[in-house]
Amino acid sequence: MTPKPFNFPAKRRTGLLLLTAAVAATAAAAQASNTHELSSLSAGKLGAEVHGLVRTARAVSAVASTVVDYEFSLRGLRKDSDQYRHSISEVHLRSAKRFLKLCEVNKGFYVKAGQFVAAQRVLPKEYSSTLSALQDQVAPLPFKVIKGVLKDNLGPDFTEMFESLDEEPIAAASIAQVHHAVLKSDQEVAIKVQYPWVQQQMTFDTRTMYFLSKTIAWLYPQYRFEWLPLAFADSMAAELDFIHEARNSERAAKNLRNNKLIRVPHVFWDLTSRQVLTMQFYTGRKIDDLDFLNQLGVEPEKVDLSQFTTMVNSCKLYFPVLYSGCNKLIVVTIFADGSLL
C-alpha cells in the first residue's frame, strides 16, 4: 500500500510561512541597512543593527527547522507507544543541539538565555542537559572602546583618578570585562566595564525571543513558554544595572560584617555608575583550584560550602546569579588564610 503523502496542518503550514517570511524580511532589512542607511547611521549603530538582524535570522531558521523536525519525525506515531517516546527523545536531543549551536554562534544574550532556560528545568531534560554546557566567555574588546565607556560614565578626565590602569582585561564575559587598576591612594581596584551596545542588544534579542516563543505557543498551544523571555529580560535588566549590583554588595558586607571568614569587596561609589562598577581588588584562587587546596593542606573532598550557603540564605543576601551547569552558583574565592570572597 502506498503511504499517504504527509501534509502539514494548515496552522503549522501558516506558521512556517510566517517564520520563512521573517527570515526573508530580516535579510532584506540587513541589505537595506547596508545600502541605504550608511549616511544616516553611525558605523557602530549600523553594525549593531545589522548584527541583530543576522542573529534574528539565525534564530528564526533554527525554530523553523525544529518545527519541521518534530512534525516529520513524529508523524503517524501514537503518543502512548514506545516508538513515540523513543522518537520524541531523539528529536528533543537534536533540537537541543541545534539551539546550543545557535547560542554559541549568536553569543551574548543568547548564551545567557540558554543558561537561563537550562536552569529553569521547565523544558525536557534533553534541553536542560545540553544547554547547560554553554560557557559565558568571550574575546575582550579593544581598550579604546572601553575607554569611551569610562569617559561617558566617569568624565573625560577619568585617567587622573588612577595611578595606573591596565589596558589588558583580567576577565571578559558577554556583557562586560574587568580591568585591574591602582588609585592615587595606592588602593588596588577591579573595574567592571559594560560593553556600550549591551542595552540595545538586549532589547533587540529579547524581542526576538518573545516573538519566537509566541509563535511556538500559537503553533503548539500545549507549549506556552512566553513567560520565559519575559523572566529572562527582567533578570538581565537587574544584571545590567551595576548600581543595583553595588548596593547588593554593600548589603552583603553589612550582613556579614561580624564574620571573619568572608570578605566582601568595598565599593568605590565615586567610580561607579550603571555601566561601571569599581570595587576593591583581591588576589585569590578559585575554590576548585585543587593544587592550591593541596598547598594549604586541605583535602578537596572535605571542602564543604554548606555552612557558607546556609549563612548566605539566613542573611537573605542577593547576589548576581551565574547560570552554569544548570545550578545557581556563587563564585567563591579562597585565600591562603582560609577566608572566602
From TrEMBL:
Residues 1-32 form the signal peptide. Pfam families: ABC1. The keyword Signal applies. Keywords: Signal. It comes from the Eukaryota. The keyword Signal applies. This is ABC1 atypical kinase-like domain-containing protein. It comes from Arachis hypogaea.
